[in-house]
Amino acid sequence: MHDIDHRVLGNKLDLFHQQEEGAGMVFWHPRGWELYRVLEDYIRGRMRRAGFREIRTPQLLARSLWEKSGHWEKFGSAMYSLADAEGGRALSLKPMSCPCHVQVFNQRVRSHRELPVRYSEFGACHRDEPSGSLEGLKRARAFVQDDAHVFCMEAHIEDEVARFCELLRQVYADLGFPSFKVALATRPAQRAGSDEGWDRAEAALAKAARAAGLEFDVLEGEGAFYGPKLEFHLMDSRDRSWQCGTVQLDFVLPERLEAEYVNERNERERPVMIHHAVLGSMERFIAMLLEHYEGWLPLWLAPDQVVVATISEANLAYAEEVVQALEEAGIRVVQDSRPERLEKKIMDARERQIPILVALGSRDERDGTVSIRERDGQQQTLVLEEGVAWLREAARPPAKDGAIAFERTAP
Question: Does CATH number 3.30.930.10 belong to domain 6-292?
């Protein structure tokens, strides 16, 4: 395939579209939303096994919160804002979720024994990006971040960074990216916090990265306004670099938003805040996956995993029985019982880039079998129950029944 731009694939495979009435926004079609949900559920399971608890926070909040956090000063020109008709109170759509997670943490007094506290969220964000910079799913005005935040003590930093780096390694390998490059982005010119705080944060993050076995380049001045960050860059099948995951160390927001816990001396103390993202943006990562695999997604990710194609109309009842058995096994299946030749159905399945085709003829119906054709041309005929079991195993998401082993750091 030559047309490997994700926007071309999105149209060809009926995944999503964009239009002027929602510039920078995405209209997900059924097949595209299926892919989105499979990826989201996979990340959700990984985060849960890594010790994160999922939360949900509002999209529209008082501008005063963003002013207090410092985001308004830094990002105000890119934030969507409006005045509340009731009292004229200025409101803004959130461009990121971090201040919201601090609000959840602040709802009660925390003991040092509770730390680290880990939250995750698929946070819907809006940013008023310039129209000239919009690029399909890669650069959008409405997108979802796989946001995560850890509230901990300084003594926890190394273990928490190591925990997240191990999670990143496993996720990227599962998604087809076994290697990545890392960069440490340091203090920008426009920043919050003292130089002393930045010295501490940069030294702590560099030390934690080395302890996690990472080698990294240094990007001077590319950090977030509240703290330094590790950036994880993946290489796709065309040797293009994509910046995806981040780990950011933050001493500033807990101070500005008055987060605190009670230490072992029964004194109030500020926690350290670590910002995490595995994929970065769900939309952007889907664009990357589509271009990396040129539309031929791995079986476990494919929106439609199997097409059941009849050889003649006489096999319709058996085809419905096979489809039901596959659906009950959790396989995403579509049925093709059009009055077309099998060759046409095979060609159409390839055009939609469905990885597996199950062809059913009179012999299959008589013998209770299914004829499985894989993308690479391999074929096998199995009894229906065996065929369902084989397909279920072949389509099983990575680490479905496994777990990532992590030790909690003793405070």
Answer: yes
Catalytically active residues, by annotation: 98, 127, 145, 147, 149, 229, 275
Inter-residue contact 9 to 295 (CB < 8 Å): yes
Q: Which residues pair with 308 in a beta bridge?
A: 335, 358
CA separation for the pair 155, 300 (Å, rounded): 39
Q: Which CATH superfamily is domain 306-394 in?
A: Anticodon-binding domain (3.40.50.800)
Q: Could you report the per-residue pLDDT of 138-186, keeping only the tens digit for each?
A: 999 999 999 999 999 999 999 999 999 899 999 999 999 988 899 989 9
User: Each residue of 225-275: pLDDT tens digit?
Assistant: 888 889 999 888 778 888 889 998 888 899 999 999 999 999 999 999 999
The amino acid at 126? H
Find all residues with CB under 8 Å of 179, minimum gap 6, and list them.
235
C-alpha 333/C-alpha 392 separation (Å) is: 11
Is-above-0.85 flag for pTM? yes
